[in-house]
Amino acid sequence: MKLESLIQYLDSYLDIKGFPDYSGAHNGLQADGKAEVARVAVAVDASERVIRQAVDAGADLLIVHHGLFWDGNLRLTGRRYRKAKLLLDSGLALYSAHLPLDAHPEVGNCAVLCRALGWEPVGPFGSYGDRQIGCWAEVDSSAEELRSHLSEVVQGPVRLIQGGQDRIHRVGIVTGGAAGMMGEATEEGLDSLVTGEGAHHTYQDAMELGVNVFYAGHYATEVWGVRALAAHIEDRFSIPWSFVDDPSGL
Question: Do 229 and 107 meet the contact criterion of CB atoms below 8 Å apart?
Answer without folding.
Answer: yes
